[in-house]
Specification:
The protein has 78 residues and is mainly alpha-helical. It has one domain. It is 83% helix and 0% strand.
């Protein structure tokens, strides 16, 4: 049989492992929560790209906006 000391040591090891698991899951959950706004912003951006008629080609969308801004910056001011 186990002595009381051995029982306490095995319980300590068991609960330490449980704490490690809880901490790992907490970190993973926190990482997912931190990524959610970034993913939402990306989805909104790609929706704008799609709605502008560029499909999934975000590079063409950016190039279009760059050309447009350069064109209007070269126009004489009011």
């Amino acid at each position: 049989m186990f002595s009381r000391k051995q029982q306490l040591e095995s319980e300590e090891v068991y609960f330490a492992k449980q704490d490690d698991i809880r901490e790992r899951y907490h970190r993973e959950m926190r990482n997912m929560m931190d990524m959610e706004p970034i993913e939402q912003e990306y989805i909104e951006y790609m929706t704008n790209v799609w709605d502008a008629g560029f499909g999934y080609d975000s590079d063409a969308y950016e190039a279009h906006w760059k050309r447009m801004l350069e064109y209007y910056e070269k126009q004489p001011g009011d």
